[in-house]
Amino acid sequence: MELTPRLQDIINIIKNRGSVNIKDLALEIKVTPKTAKGYARELQRLGLVEIDQDGNIKLKEQKENENDKILKTLENHENEILSLKKEIEMLKEELQKLKKRGKA
């Protein structure tokens, strides 16, 4: 299952804190509480989190194997992002070299 970067960020926030209130989540990710609640409901629909009546979100107790898959997916995405950032820096350096040659 592929999660959007925003949903991955929310999972990481919940994982780090243990649980988070929807209003606090909204402040942290700089969205309205309504938008944060929509993200939480999407994660709930996917079976990844539980939301209580007070708006607190926590990771759903899952089989360890499923949690491992989610964590591996998050790790893979983070590695891909890091790799792309490095590639962008290399391309920027090449572009600078080409610009310098053009001026000479």
From TrEMBL:
Keywords: Coiled coil
Domain of life: Archaea
Coiled coil: 56-101
InterPro entries listed in its UniProt record: UCP032840 (IPR017009), WH-like_DNA-bd_sf (IPR036388), WH_DNA-bd_sf (IPR036390)
A Pfam short name: HTH_24
Name of this chain's protein: Winged helix-turn-helix domain-containing protein
Annotated organism of origin: Saccharolobus caldissimus
Top-level taxonomy: Archaea, Thermoproteota, Thermoprotei, Sulfolobales, Sulfolobaceae
